[in-house]
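Please, structure for the following, as tokens.
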Amino acid sequence: MKPQDVAGVLVGEVHPVNVSKTRQELSRLWDEAIIKFGTDRMRLSTLNLVTVLTGPDELPCIGEDLRSLCSHYPARVFAVVLDPEGTGEMAGWYSVNCNGSQVYQEQLTLHLPGETDRQLPSLLAPLYHGDQPVFLWWRGRPGFAHPLWERLADQADRIVVDTSHGAGLLADLNRQVRDPYHQELAFSDLEWTRQARWRNLLAGLYDRPGASEHLKKVSRLEIGFVPGPERAESAPLYMAGWLASRLGWSVEKSLGEGHAVFRSGAGRAIEFVLQNEEGPDVLKNRLLYVRLDATPVGCCYGVYRKPENPRVYVSQVSGEETVHSTAMPSGFVAASTLLRSPPRSAENDVFMPFAEQLNLIAAELEVFTRQSLFERSLAAAAEILGAAVTR
């Protein structure tokens, strides 16, 4: 990767900077921007966003993607491109992005070849807006073992990662969250955020009066999942962990060969089956279906994707005596069909486009504190894997 490859994807008014005098350079370039654009222009920032990229495939995000994101979430942005195979000196660029006619955001982009990344934390520290939170967004595979990880984490208030990029990352993230040195840090996982619609639809099945009683009778949880080449396991385990943490299930037998066993608070055994399914590339590392069987009362609750259109989710109840209705998440188009053939069942089709990464990170930029639901679900998911951590 060459410096010109990085500079080539930047947008807005782009200027090279002398990295050894970054703070003075940023002040000088903003003064020049004021002269060029007029004194009625202003900088707007509500947070500091450090985004770390670990490969050339991520380069496009530091241009138009970050500009689009910051048009809704004004930030002082630091885009860091790690290039361990590269040679030469650290290079930097300052760009001013317009948000409307009079408001601008700043972005400092840094290319760090070889071992020049060792200088990064000390370079960034004096550049943060001191009264605003620091978000660290590590794109691609999280660098938990990277030499920079702990040093950047020490400067951050929130860390956002995506465990869908490889196997074993969920257990690694749980260790990070439960590390006593990280008690002041708030963590987020885009894979958890990606599943919000699944949780909403599944929980909505039990909104009807009396339906929640069936949760006490669940005897089997089955999750269908399309594994990708990375063999990431976080998607199905987050779903199972969320259900276990909400319903008070403990892990009696950790996951092995696609099978685990929970134990309810009342002592009832719940079988957990993880089915690896075939699917198109667009569904790699994604859920296909979630089904809860309440065998003692002859009921099944589930959410699944339609095979002919994976962007359509179907929430379904079968085998019960009363008609079911599902609360729709706001902003989604829904068409409902009631099936009256015995046993009586109810079904709702909900069209929901795949969540883009920018939409996922945007949702995380609205949260400034630790999320107990996420952390408890993560801990339960790690326990299912047999990778629980105790403080």
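Residues 3-156 form one domain. The chain is about 25% helix and 30% strand.
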